[in-house]
Amino acid sequence: MAITKIHPITTTLTKALNYIQNPKKTDGTLLVDGYGCVPETAYQQFMRTKEKVDKKDGYLAFHLIQSFSPGEVDYETAHKIGIELADKVFKGRFQYVIATHIDRGNVHNHIIANSVSFKDFGKYNSSPNSYYFIRRTSDMLCKEYGLSVVAEPKDKGKSHYEHSLDKKGQSWKSLLRQNIDRCIIKARDWDEFLLLMQREKYEIKSGKYISFRAEGQERFTRSKTLGADYTEEQIRNRIAGGKRIEIESSQRVSLIIDIENAMKERQKNPEAYRQWATVQNIKTMANTLNFLTEHNLLDYNKLSEKTEATRESYNSTRTRIKEIEKRLKTIDEEIHNIDSYRKTKPIADKLETVVFKERYRKEHEADLIIFGAAEKYLKKRFNGGKAPLIKDLRAEQKALLAEKDKLYESYYSEKSELSELQATMKNVDMILGRDKAQEQERSKKRMGELE
pLDDT tens, position by position, for the chain (451 residues)? Predict the structure, then answer.
């Protein structure tokens, strides 16, 4: 779990930068990094950015703190998470210094970012919305690294899945399937099923095809339009706990029937069923049945294969995005240092020819510091060789950004789909008792290893 907070720095930027880079707190500054600047010269580089557009007034910088639970994360992982957080929050527009402190019981990151962008010279907008984004991004990264997050109240409105159904114009059908599935499990016969549906506030119209209409719904929905498992004949058969009437492929094995039969089996022990059938469990089961039907994943192997394929695709996309983000960060550093070197080199060269060298050094102290840092970076980065042209770096940057934007479309879609598939797999295993069987198998294996 990570707690985040952010506050502006108005007068003590030098002091703040020195504090977070304290060698005693950062393992001898091994856990200190900079973006768009060299940590040792960050103050001068921050101020130079402001001077370019005369924005030295107001907030000098923003100080973001990310604190982890004691013992939950190692130093290097915490530092890595902090860099990813800073990259996502400041979007490559603002210079920052990050330092991971390890001198206390809990590991925590300090990130100080310039208030003015060195890319477009706009100011960082700190607001409740921007803080919510910081907290949400931090939680997302913690989940990706297997850390806990602060639990928040669940949305009392529609789920992501329900919203997606609304967009498709299927929300009435989705809810009807869910309620039919739930009432089938509770009902002992057809009449009780109809009574339970009425209690769910459905108006029922019988005839050649049975139809239902919810409160606020304009037209009746014929149950047969919901799918092969929702015809009147099939609903009656499901209530009776019968085998599935094969309508589609003879090879298809319906998880829905397996789940319903598992529930019917539970009902044979009323006391145990009463303890299990909490509102949450019934709702979970209904959502699971709904998802399986909606996505035609009525075979366990098919569900498992779909989950694994989605996981592989998601991990591949995520890995490539991280590779691109790492390269983009390096390109930004290269462009910044090449530009700084080019602009300050004439000032540094002139030092060799002036008569009053000390006075010249004092007058151009900031530029000389920046030149020295840029020169040091470029020698190390390119092994003393020639640096690439800025125009070539910008062309590569543009191509990578386009690829990244396209990948993120897949990333968010795959992430949402994987989350739903994993939850469904877990729920199916729980309902069918597979989770207990798997745990017993693991327990036997552990006992065998001990013997």
Answer: 578 889 999 888 999 999 999 988 888 888 899 888 888 888 988 988 888 888 877 899 999 999 888 777 888 889 999 999 999 999 989 999 999 998 776 789 999 999 999 888 899 998 888 888 999 899 889 888 888 765 443 333 344 444 444 444 446 787 888 788 878 877 888 988 899 899 888 999 988 889 999 887 888 898 888 877 788 988 888 887 755 444 443 333 356 566 666 666 656 666 655 555 554 455 666 667 667 766 777 778 888 899 999 999 999 999 999 999 899 989 999 999 999 999 999 999 999 999 999 999 999 998 999 999 999 999 999 998 999 999 999 999 999 989 988 888 888 888 888 888 888 888 788 767 665 445 455 455 544 544 4
Residue with tokens 């719904």: 217
CA 26/CA 20 separation, integer angstroms = 8
Rounded to an integer, what distance in angstroms lies between the CA atom of residue 241 and that of residue 239? 5
Q: Using the structure block, give the residue that is written with the tokens 């909606």.
A: 294
What pTM was computed for the model?
Answer: 0.47
